[in-house]
Design goal:
Length: 478
């Protein structure tokens, strides 16, 4: 049994209340970790540590901050195998995928280490009268709350820019997948991160997470998770005038026009539908296909999807691992039932799988559904599992209306060889991100986030550095 304690002031500490939560291996259904069940008291200790560390951390020369953050990136790289094993055990995802995510976690630190030395602010000359310059000062103590789908990848995506900008952090990973964040703390210590600069607390969102959001000395909250939770967090943080960055759910369209390179579109759609068991906010869960290529696309996609191996996360051939938790597994299955009730036809999958040796795990076969209206619940609510729907369309106007017809607006993908159409669609889609003839091709400098109920604010590049700093205008008369 692995014990996961808080990391406060550079040391692992037991929860003040002495209580622990069970942590499950989703592939076996077994408990293998005990997770500190943090309370407001533990969050207060983390805030106290952050407060003591803040003056020295924000005054540290950027070059020194760069060196420490870069050493954390190297530490992650050195421990990639161990971290990837832990991630797959905790989350259920295939090991090959965990390895690439651990590389990205390292890259997040490397990227924002260099941001610490490159970040700059503006100056404005006001005629011949004055010069204005903008100071970009650290916000102070910031809260980072991350979800369970890409645990270390998203945890580091938040804490690296927060630290690079000179803040001290109180962070909470998801109670479903806290293991890699726990291991990262030791790496941070070895890299020379001063005690108190990064504090990691564990526990339930409704108690420990809530205490972070409510704490008056935590001045900014960066959150990734469900839309309902984001709405609640905003209702608590906004009246306290905290800075808020919310990266929430999606119900993303993947649009295949009749002039698309079908081979590429099918190959990438397999990934954009089912990578990480479909538990990525960027997955294209509504696949709109032009009637001219609908049958050809459908049969080519089905041919690939029925071959996908579901099961043991540690088998290299596995394409779909376990669903993160029992409640989430049940939620996804309930949506498949709903699709049936709404009149959908299940083309493949549609049920749980019990792979040999993993009969107690939470597995769902990759599922493709057709025959549903674009406006039904299955097609407008986030399922966040290995479930997609196929929807035919005739015209650009029609698909645009359907694609934009949900409360979400995170990431859209379109496949076409017509450049003018790509520009027209990219302009008109209500979405924070538009991928044309590709998916999840990431450049860490680009703004990342969604519109409508997919969130508020942007992460990535200078956007993240701006979020984690307060601009102050200084006007000096000539
Ligand atoms: O996430 P929650 P859940 C979507 C997906 C999923 C749904 C719910 O559709 O089915 O959200 O997932 C912390 N104050 N996404 O309920 O609750 C919590 O401890 C402060 C999309 O598992 O949003 C965890 O660390 N914190 C998504 C984090 O919030 C609170 C990724 C996320 O948990 C809190 C995951 C509170 N009151 C799920 N309540 C994406 N955008 O990628 C919870 N938390």
């Amino acid at each position: 049994m692995i014990t996961i304690n808080h990391f406060i002031n550079g040391k692992y500490v037991a929860p003040g209340g002495g209580e622990y939560l069970d942590g499950f291996n989703p592939a076996t259904g077994e408990v293998f970790t005990k997770i500190a069940n943090g309370t407001a008291h533990d969050v207060q200790m983390a805030v106290d540590a952050a407060k003591s560390a803040l003056p020295a951390w924000k005054a540290m020369p950027a070059e020194d901050r760069f060196r420490i953050l870069n050493a954390i990136a190297e530490g992650i790289e050195t421990h990639i195998d161990e971290l990837a094993l832990a991630e797959s055990r905790d989350q259920g995802k295939p090991l090959w995928l965990s390895k690439s995510e651990m590389q990205r976690a390292s890259q997040n630190f490397r990227f924002f280490a260099t941001a610490a030395v490159q970040f700059a602010s503006e100056s404005h000359q006001t005629d011949t009268r004055a010069i204005n310059y903008t100071l970009r000062q650290p916000v102070g103590i910031v809260g980072c709350i991350s979800p369970w789908n890409l645990p270390l990848y998203l945890f580091t995506w938040k804490i690296a820019p927060a630290l690079a900008a000179g803040n001290c952090v109180v962070a909470k990973p998801s109670e479903f997948t806290p293991l890699t964040a726990h291991l990262l703390c030791e790496i941070a210590n070895k890299a020379g991160l001063p005690p108190g600069v990064l504090n990691v607390v564990h526990g339930l969102g409704s108690t420990c997470g809530q205490a972070i959001v409510e704490h008056p000395e935590i001045k900014a909250i960066s959150f990734t998770g469900g839309t309902a939770t984001g709405k609640h967090i905003a209702s608590v943080a906004a009246p306290m005038f905290k800075k808020l960055s919310l990266e929430l759910g999606g119900k993303n369209p993947n649009i295949i026009f009749d002039d698309a390179d079908l081979t590429e579109a099918v190959k990438t759609s397999v990934r954009s539908s089912f990578l990480n068991q479909g538990e990525i906010c960027l997955c294209g869960s509504r696949v709109f296909v032009h009637t001219g290529v609908y049958d050809a696309f459908k049969s080519a996609l089905l041919q690939e999807v029925v071959k996908m191996q579901v099961g043991d996360p540690f088998d290299d051939k596995t394409r779909v691992g376990a669903i993160v938790s029992k409640p989430h597994f049940e939620k996804v299955l309930s949506y498949i039932d709903l699709a049936r009730q709404e009149g959908g036809t299940i083309l493949c999958g549609g049920q749980e799988v019990k792979p040999a040796g993993f009969e107690n795990g939470w597995f769902i076969a990759p599922t493709i559904i057709e025959g549903l209206s674009a406006a039904c619940r299955t097609n407008t609510e986030e399922i966040f599992g290995p479930v997609i729907t196929l929807i035919p369309f005739e015209t650009e106007e029609e698909v645009l209306e359907m694609a934009n017809g949900t409360a979400y607006g995170l990431a859209a993908t379109l496949w076409t060889s017509d450049l003018k159409r790509a520009h027209r669609m990219a302009e008109a889609l209500q979405s924070g991100i538009v991928w044309v003839n590709c998916w999840l091709l990431r450049d860490l400098r680009t703004p990342f986030g969604g519109v409508k109920q997919s969130g508020v604010g942007r992460e990535g590049g200078w956007e993240a550095m701006r979020f984690f700093t307060e601009p102050k205008n200084v006007c000096i008369a000539y």
